[in-house]
Write a structure and sequence with these properties.
single chain, 93 residues, mainly alpha, 58% helix, globular
Length: 93
């Protein structure tokens, strides 16, 4: 699902500034490839695709997530881990 998000983001980016579909590739922070607009697009597309593909909405703009923005959005892998935790927490509620 996250690779599809990257595919959509790359459609909006110049060919020489494409995001890698690599779990270790930096997204945000000092080494990240996303500016603030790119991060907003990533968040919106990820929330949308999660609801469509997994059948449950998640919120990536809450205080808990945004207070750890560089950890959550540091790489595609860290974002995938965070979504996995969110989905498991909401199952247990």
């Amino acid at each position: 699902m996250l690779f599809r998000v990257i595919d959509e983001l790359n459609q909006m980016r110049p060919p020489d500034d494409q995001l890698a579909k690599d779990l270790e590739a930096p997204l945000s922070g000092d080494a990240g490839r996303l500016d603030s607009a790119g991060l907003i697009n990533l968040i919106a597309l990820t929330e949308q695709k999660t609801a469509e593909d997994l059948g449950r909405p998640i919120m990536l703009t809450d205080e808990q997530t945004l207070s750890r923005i560089n950890q959550v959005f540091g790489s595609l892998g860290s974002l995938a881990d965070y979504i996995y935790r969110l989905m498991n927490e909401s199952k247990n509620e």
